[in-house]
Write a structure and sequence with these properties.
Structural class: alpha+beta
Strand content: 15-25%
Distance between the termini: 68 Å
Helix content: 40-55%
Radius of gyration: 26 Å
Number of strands: 9
Largest sheet: 4 strands, antiparallel
Order of helices and strands: HEEEEEEHEHEEHHHHHHHH
């Protein structure tokens, strides 16, 4: 009799736990509204990224978004002219459909900008000397479909490129080895069109740093060791940087398996 009573109590306890939202695990659709903290008005076309599941979306005209998420996932919310936010998903955000996330406007101090045009004379020989020169050089190697940036037109640069191609495992193993999980995210990030569109409009590396959990110096270190030039690092948008990281990592994996 005691055993039967104990079993009944245990079954009731399990049923209560199963019905308790606090114990519910798994991914669900999370809905919330993004508003302007100063005006309380909804913000349209705000980018929302689930950093854990690497999926993205944008808000509609009412500032509403829906995204797959689980409890304790981190949402990265960004909008031009506003301070980005990182939000930890909680059970309450699933319980209540009127969750509002406020973004604060950034205050920019406008500074005087002096534009100095090229002083062209109309004489080709003179004007060519006044134009800026791109000091980055790419080297094409027979049998390879892509070219490699050496950064400078010197014998040392050529040797650096050849060394990276012929023995990249020794040069990059330590770099990629420190961030194995982040590097595995590259392919998943590239598959989401929303995230790619966002990265194409960014040049500050902030969103890319959050997605990959890498510091800016780490990103530059990886690409420098993959022989991308300083001018590329300074002028490329975040999507181009992502593609460069992915390309470098894929080549590294292929050649690392052969060593």
């Amino acid at each position: 009799m005691r055993i039967s009573l104990l079993l009944i109590l245990l079954l009731c306890g399990f049923r209560t736990m199963a019905q308790d939202p606090e114990n519910t695990a798994g991914t669900r659709q999370l809905e919330a509204v993004v508003i302007n903290a100063q005006t309380d008005r909804p913000l349209e076309s705000v980018h929302v990224i689930n950093l854990n599941q690497v999926v993205g979306t944008i808000t509609d005209q009412k500032g509403t978004f829906s995204i797959p998420a689980a409890v304790n996932d981190t949402l990265y919310i960004s909008y031009l002219g506003f301070k980005p936010q990182k939000i930890r998903v909680t059970n309450d955000m699933f319980k209540f459909q009127d969750t509002k996330i406020s973004l604060t406007e950034l205050a920019y101090a406008l500074e005087e900008v002096i534009v100095q045009p090229y002083q062209l004379t109309g004489y080709l020989e003179v004007d060519v000397k006044n134009l800026p020169i791109n000091n980055s050089y790419q080297y094409s190697i027979s049998g390879l479909a892509v070219s490699y940036e050496g950064g400078s037109k010197t014998p040392g640069a050529v040797s650096k490129v050849l060394g990276a191609i012929l023995n990249p495992a020794d040069q990059l193993r330590n770099i990629f080895g420190r961030h194995p999980q982040q590097m595995r995210k590259l392919r998943k990030i590239k598959e989401d069109d929303r995230i790619r569109d966002l990265l194409a409009s960014k040049f500050d590396r902030t969103t890319l740093m959050e997605l990959l959990q890498l510091e800016k110096v780490d990103i530059e270190d990886i690409l420098t060791n993959c022989n991308y030039s300083k001018s590329f690092l300074m002028t490329a948008n975040d999507l181009q940087i992502l593609d460069a990281l992915s390309s470098c990592y894929e080549e590294y994996k292929v050649l690392n398996r052969t060593n």
